[in-house]
C-alpha cells in the first residue's frame, strides 16, 4: 500500500516519465498537491507505462541515428529499412552486436530468446566490455544469472525497466523497453563516414507530399489506443486489423471480432 500512497498524487510518476523521456512534462505546470487539490496529475498515471514505451521507441529513429543505416541487410535498400518498426530495428541492432562479438546465437523476439540471459550478457559485454563481463555465462541458475545481467546493466546506468523475474519469464514488454533504453544510452554504432553518407543518402524530414498527412493519421490512430502502435501508415494497415480497431473505438461493438481473420505473423510488440 505504501507504493499507492506515495504515487497517488502523480508527481512521482511524472518525474519517472521525464526521466525516461526528458522534457515530456514541464515541471512548472505540475500541480503541487494541497489538501484541496490532489487529483490533477492522476491522468498521467493511467497511460504512463504505454507513454514510456512509446517515448523510448520514438528515439529508435534513423533520422536521429543515421548510423542505423549499417543495419541494412545485403541487397536491402534504405527505403526498406525505413519501413521497419522500432522493435524490429532493435532486434537488428541487438543481432548486429551479437555478430560483432562472434556469438553463435541470434534473437528473433524479446521473449524466450532473451530469457536465459546469455544474449544479454554478450550484448552488454560488447557495448561496454570494461564494465560488463561475461561472468554470468558461468552461472547455471537462471534467476541468479538474471540478477548478474542486471547488475552489469546497472554498472552502465541501464538497470531500469526490467526485473530478474521479468527477464527469466521472457516478458516481452519490459524486455523491449530495457533494450530500447540500452540503445538510447549506448548505441555503440560508429558514425558514417563521408563515403557511406553518399552511398546511403540522407533521410529527409516529414515534409514530402503526403508524408505529413500520414504522420497526422498515425498520431490520431495511436491516440485511440490501437494495438500494436502505429509507426508506418501503409505497412501497418495492410491486414486491416488496425482499421477494425479504429472502427470499434469510435463505435463500440461495431466489429464482431469472431468474424475477423487474424493473420499468423510476428506482430510488433504493443507499445
Shape: globular
Helical/strand content category:
mainly alpha
Count of domains: 3
Rg value: 21 Å
Strand content: under 5%
Structural summary, described in words:
It is a single chain. The chain has 271 residues and is an all-alpha fold. It has 3 domains: 45 residues, no CATH class; 135 residues, Actin-binding Protein, T-fimbrin, domain 1, CATH 1.10.418; 49 residues, Actin-binding Protein, T-fimbrin, domain 1. It contains 14 helices and no strands. Helix 4 packs across helix 10. The longest helix has 15 residues. The radius of gyration is 21 Å and the shape is globular. The C terminus is likely disordered.
Write a concise synopsis of the structure shown.
The chain is mainly alpha-helical and 271 residues long. It contains 14 helices and no strands. The protein starts with a helix and ends in a 21-residue tail after the last helix.
List keywords for this structure.
48% helix, 0% strand, disordered C terminus, 271 residues, Actin-binding Protein, T-fimbrin, domain 1, mainly alpha
